[in-house]
Structure to design on (95 residues):
């Protein structure tokens, strides 16, 4: 993993909490090693589309990674090292 600056982690944490669906998704990922959009949607009483949108946003920031990008549906996601660092910062400072 590339060294991530403290400022970068703080900025990403602020970016996550600025939109509710991102925060809900990050909070839910705490309890999962691997997660699917449908599972998270069910657990959080949100639409699969809402969670899928958040997954794409987090993937674009390299906070999560899709383990099954070749699949059209039932994709599985994990937190990246950067995502784990941001989640840790959220727990320490913002939650």
């Amino acid at each position: 993993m590339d060294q991530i600056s403290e400022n970068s982690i703080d900025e990403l944490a602020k970016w996550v909490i600025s939109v509710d669906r991102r925060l809900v998704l990050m909070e839910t990922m705490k309890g999962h090693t691997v997660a699917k959009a449908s599972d998270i949607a069910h657990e959080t009483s949100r639409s699969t589309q809402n969670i899928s949108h958040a997954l794409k946003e987090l993937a674009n920031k390299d906070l999560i990674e899709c383990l099954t990008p070749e699949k059209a549906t039932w994709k599985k996601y994990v937190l990246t090292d950067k995502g784990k660092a941001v989640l840790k910062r959220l727990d320490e400072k913002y939650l």
